[in-house]
């Protein structure tokens, strides 16, 4: 079994066009950060990532396409996400306001609300975000 198969997956968004764009950005080197909701980790009872953790990155078909290594993890208020993190997400946002609007749209989507088990889920300035920085260590 290849070593990457033993690694847990780090899935960007849900399968489909958004995941395809995010994975392409990871592979191109444009995306070196990502953001998740602390509430999602808590609901799934998943430990927070730590620097040095490695993950396989699956595409929309579930095929691993890369191995990434986490280099930094911060838990911060949504209102405290900085411009460098937003830009490094590789989605073309040039302001924190644009980044936040994109993320709020995703976090308020029916799919995310279903994943969180809360049809009324809503983020605000005090929502806790897990901000990760990573690097690609292997393309598969």
Q: Explain this structure to me?
A:
The protein is an alpha+beta fold and 140 residues long. 31% of the residues lie in helices and 26% in strands. It has helices spanning 17-28, 38-44, 83-88, 96-107, 110-116; strands at 33-37, 54-58, 64-77, 128-139. A hairpin with a 5-residue loop joins strand 2 and strand 3 (64-77). It starts with 16 loop residues before the first helix and ends with a strand.
Strand order of the largest sheet: 1-4-3-2
Unreliable spans are none
What is the makeup of the main sheet?
4 strands, antiparallel
Count of discrete alpha- or pi-helical segments spanning 4 or more residues: 5
Which SSEs are present, and which pair or pack?
Elements: H1 17-28, E1 33-37, H2 38-44, E2 54-58, E3 64-77, H3 83-88, H4 96-107, H5 110-116, E4 128-139
Antiparallel strand pairs: 1-4, 2-3, 3-4
Q: Main attributes?
A:
140 residues, alpha+beta, 4-stranded antiparallel sheet, 5 helices
Question: What is this entry, summarized?
Answer:
By secondary structure, this protein is an alpha+beta fold. 31% of the residues lie in helices and 26% in strands.
């Amino acid at each position: 079994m290849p070593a990457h198969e033993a690694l847990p997956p780090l899935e960007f968004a849900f399968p489909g066009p958004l995941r395809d764009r995010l994975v392409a950005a990871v592979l191109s080197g444009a995306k070196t950060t990502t953001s998740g909701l602390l509430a999602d980790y808590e609901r799934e009872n998943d430990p927070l990532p730590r620097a040095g953790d490695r993950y396989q990155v699956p595409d929309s078909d579930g095929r691993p396409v890369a191995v990434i290594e986490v280099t930094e993890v911060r838990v911060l208020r949504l209102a405290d996400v900085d411009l460098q993190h937003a830009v490094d997400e590789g989605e073309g946002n040039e302001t924190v306001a644009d980044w936040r609007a994109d993320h709020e749209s995703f976090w308020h989507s029916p799919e995310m609300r279903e994943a969180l088990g809360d049809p009324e889920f809503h983020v605000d300035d005090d929502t806790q975000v897990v901000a990760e920085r990573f690097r690609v260590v292997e393309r598969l």
